[in-house]
Write a structure and sequence with these properties.
Blueprint (H helix, E strand, L loop, with lengths): L9 H6 L6 E5 L3 H12 L2 E4 L8 H4 L4 H10 L5 E5 L14 E4 L3 E4 L13
Parallel strand pairs: 2-5
Antiparallel strand pairs: 1-3, 2-4
């Protein structure tokens, strides 16, 4: 449904204007789009895979490795990935999925070979 009827998260985006230090829509996959934030900000982002919100439809797949692969690298989610300063409280219905740290790139807490997301070029 999200692919055929995407809903822009305008209200959430507007609520983050005075709070978020970075934000991007997740249209090309979480790893790829979080990677854009990390590269532009000169930091590393550590994603905690157990914290990822997964739809009931995706959870219904019996292959847990495939579910995680799709959650991390699949696209067309049209959600927002954003960072907040330390101590800031996330808006309601948002899930903390990781943290920003020194370094570069995006890291996960699992050892899995993943594509970083959709590659335009």
């Amino acid at each position: 449904d999200r692919f055929y009827h995407p809903r822009a998260r305008i209200t959430l985006g507007q609520s983050l204007l005075d709070q978020a230090t970075a934000a991007i829509d997740i249209s090309d996959g979480l790893l790829g789009d979080a990677g854009h934030i990390a590269a532009a900000s000169g930091v590393a982002i550590a994603i905690e895979t157990q914290a990822l919100p997964v739809s009931d439809a995706l959870k219904s797949n019996s292959d847990s490795k495939k579910v995680l692969t799709w959650a991390l690298s699949g696209g067309d989610d049209y959600e927002l990935c954003f960072t907040l300063p330390p101590g800031a409280v996330a808006p309601p219905k948002c899930t903390r999925i990781g943290r920003v740290m020194e370094g570069q790139g995006v890291k996960t807490d699992i050892d899995i070979d993943l594509k970083p997301g959709y590659q335009h070029f």
